[in-house]
């Protein structure tokens, strides 16, 4: 089996690459926090590429992710796992649920947060038993982290170091939240499920390659 040259993308020539590692393309709404967080994962049998795609509401993020994946495919860059990461924030209920449906129809798994990604960070320390507005997240994080939280790149790097040892607790808390919102048929209405997040599903998948 031939080896990839140093100038070739590791995402091309899929048969050679697939024998070594699987690959994730994670397209994120956030400019710094989310891409830096996911790119910090060091996996033994998979490679992660997390990129920002756009700002805007959830549906705009999904449409931008679909376009970005097409650009990657046209370059010959094929991945094993495609994820899109976005928040509800002020997105309307209809557009938020439509964004999740559109992503699924286009082959993406979705790591959404209602209301924002920082809920996932909070769940590393506390179980959130009632709705929490995103304006409360920074103060809650400051209280448990011991340093002010912001979306600056320097803080984003610190976050992974502080949170990594507590990932399993966050997964357990997030799953518990997600499960409590399911109806009798195990169906969900993500736009109505504040506070909840499916980021734990992506993190669990990544951890399976450690």
Which descriptors apply to this entry?
about 210 residues; alpha/beta; Rossmann fold; 9 helices; about 15% strand
What does this protein structure show overall?
- It is a single chain.
- By secondary structure, this protein is an alpha/beta fold.
- The chain has a single domain (21-207), classed as Rossmann fold.
- 43% of the residues lie in helices and 14% in strands.
- The protein is built from nine helices and five strands.
- The chain has helices at 14-18, 33-39, 58-74, 93-105, 118-122, 137-145, 153-163, 167-180, 199-207, and strands spanning 22-28, 46-52, 81-87, 109-114, 196-197.
- The chain has a five-stranded mixed beta sheet with strand order 2-1-3-4-5, sandwiched between helices.
- Helix 4 (93-105) links the parallel strand 3 and strand 4.
- It is globular, with a radius of gyration of 17 Å.
């Amino acid at each position: 089996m031939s080896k990839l040259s140093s100038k070739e993308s590791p995402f091309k020539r899929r048969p050679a690459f697939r024998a070594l590692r699987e690959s994730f393309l994670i397209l994120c709404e956030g400019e710094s926090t989310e891409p830096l967080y996911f790119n910090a994962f060091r996996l033994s049998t998979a490679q992660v590429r997390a990129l920002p795609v756009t700002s805007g509401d959830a549906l705009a993020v999904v449409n931008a992710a679909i376009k970005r994946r097409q650009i990657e495919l046209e370059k010959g860059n094929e991945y094993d796992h495609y994820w899109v990461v976005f928040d509800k924030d002020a997105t309307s209920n209809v557009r938020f649920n439509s964004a999740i449906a559109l992503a699924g129809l286009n082959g993406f798994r979705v790591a959404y947060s209602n209301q924002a990604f920082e809920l996932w960070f909070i769940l590393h320390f506390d179980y959130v038993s009632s709705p929490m507005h995103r304006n409360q997240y920074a103060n809650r994080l400051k209280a448990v982290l011991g340093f002010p939280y912001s979306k600056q790149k320097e803080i984003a790097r610190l976050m992974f170091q502080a949170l990594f040892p507590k990932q399993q607790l966050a997964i357990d808390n997030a799953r518990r939240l997600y499960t409590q919102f399911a109806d009798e048929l195990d169906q969900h209405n993500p736009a109505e499920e504040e506070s909840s997040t499916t980021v734990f599903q992506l993190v669990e998948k990544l951890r399976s390659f450690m």
